[in-house]
Specification:
Distance between the termini: 36 Å
Strand order of the largest sheet: 1-2
Low-confidence stretches: none
Order of helices and strands: HEEHHEEH
Mean pLDDT: 96
Number of helices: 4
Length: 155
C-alpha cells in the first residue's frame, strides 16, 4: 500500500506542477545539473520529454509485471535505451502519460496478490519480482518529478 501511495503522491505533485506552469515552458529543452538517479543522457530534456519517458516506462513495467505475475520472466532484457523519449514530443503526451499512470496502477492492483517468484532484471537494480517493480514505480516518478522541477527552474 505504501508503494501505491508513493505513486499517487508523486503523480499528484507532477500534476500540480503542470497545472501551475505556462504550457509554452513545458516544451523547452534545458540542460540541468546531474540529479541523483538520473542518467547523464537524460539531463537535456523538456518537461514533455520527461512525461514521454514516464509513459514509456509505465507501459514497459506494466508488461513486465503482468508477465512476472503469470510466472514468466520476459525474454528481452530491460534497457535504458528502450525508454528514451521522442525529441519532438509536445503537449499531446499529457493524456497518454495520464493513461499510463492509470494503467500501471491497474496492473499493480491486478498483480499484487501474485505468489510468483519469477524475476526480471532491471538495468541498475538487478533481478526484481512483481513487488520490486511495484516499488520502483513511485521512486522513478519522484526522480523525474525532481527533474521537472529542475527543468522549470531554468526556463
Amino acid at each position: 500500500a505504501s508503494f501505491t501511495a508513493d505513486i499517487a503522491d508523486e503523480r499528484a505533485r507532477i500534476a500540480a506542477i503542470l497545472d501551475a506552469t505556462a504550457p509554452d515552458r513545458l516544451g523547452v529543452r534545458v540542460l540541468i545539473p546531474r540529479l541523483r538517479g538520473l542518467e547523464d543522457s537524460s539531463r537535456h530534456w523538456s518537461v514533455w520529454m520527461t512525461l514521454d519517458h514516464l509513459r514509456i516506462v509505465h507501459e514497459a513495467v506494466g508488461r513486465v509485471m503482468r508477465s512476472l505475475a503469470d510466472g514468466v520472466a520476459p525474454g528481452r532484457a530491460a534497457s535504458t535505451a528502450d525508454v528514451k523519449p521522442s525529441a519532438t514530443v509536445d503537449g499531446g503526451v499529457a493524456l497518454p502519460y495520464e493513461r499510463s499512470c492509470d494503467d500501471i496502477l491497474a496492473t499493480i492492483a491486478a498483480t499484487a496478490a501474485t505468489s510468483s517468484r519469477a524475476r526480471h532484471a532491471h538495468p541498475w537494480f538487478g533481478p526484481l519480482d512483481v513487488r520490486g517493480w511495484h516499488a520502483l514505480v513511485g521512486m522513478h516518478l519522484g526522480i523525474h518529478r525532481r527533474q521537472v522541477e529542475a527543468i522549470l527552474a531554468r526556463t
